[in-house]
């Protein structure tokens, strides 16, 4: 029986990548060892803030004096205003929403009389100051009026029902005096 597997210790003459004694590379310094005389040290990365050396045939970048963080501008994320900068052009800032208009809308749903009072006051303030929120103030006022009217009708209805029940039970139990 013949063995078709070559000896792993002998290099294959047909393999150009096989390392033989004549193809061994010169010894490189191990990690932590200084390079031997005649060998180039590995390239070092440039320090932070310094430009890398120019490539062959390219002009060198301009050199600036070394500054220690005075008024440095950093790149901002997309759409974000820079610190200290105004986010809108002067005169074009979005109008402020009237706080009482917001309270009128919420109060109109939770406590109807609050919505009515805050809605009236906020409409007057909006006319005077030009703030946003007129729609919320009107909605709070209308919801407050409707819910207050429904509560008043409910209370009137309950009073009528209680009077009707009371008069019906009173008519059925009259005292005749003859026993």
UniProtKB/TrEMBL annotation:
Annotated spans, Disordered: 1-77
Record-linked InterPro entries: DUF4190 (IPR025241)
Record's compositionally biased regions (Pro residues): 40-64
Low complexity compositional bias, start-end: 29-39, 65-77
Keywords on record: Membrane, Transmembrane, Transmembrane helix
Residue ranges occupied by any DUF4190 domain in the UniProt entry: 99-154
Record-given protein name: Putative membrane protein
């Amino acid at each position: 029986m013949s063995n078709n597997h070559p000896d792993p210790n002998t290099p294959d003459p047909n393999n150009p990548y096989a390392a033989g004694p004549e193809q061994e590379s010169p010894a490189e310094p191990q990690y932590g060892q200084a390079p031997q005389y005649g060998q180039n040290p590995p390239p070092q990365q440039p320090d932070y803030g310094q430009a890398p050396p120019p490539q062959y045939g390219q002009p060198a970048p301009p050199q600036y004096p070394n500054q220690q963080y005075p008024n440095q501008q950093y790149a901002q994320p997309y759409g974000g205003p820079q610190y200290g900068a105004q986010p809108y052009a002067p005169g074009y800032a979005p109008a402020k929403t009237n706080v009482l208009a917001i309270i009128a809308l919420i109060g109109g749903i939770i406590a109807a009389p609050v919505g009515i009072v805050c809605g009236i006051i906020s409409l007057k303030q909006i006319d005077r100051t030009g703030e946003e929120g007129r729609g919320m103030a009107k909605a709070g006022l209308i919801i407050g009026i409707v819910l207050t009217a429904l509560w008043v009708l409910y209370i009137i209805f309950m009073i009528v029902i209680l009077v009707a029940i009371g008069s019906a039970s009173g008519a059925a139990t009259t005292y005749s005096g003859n026993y």
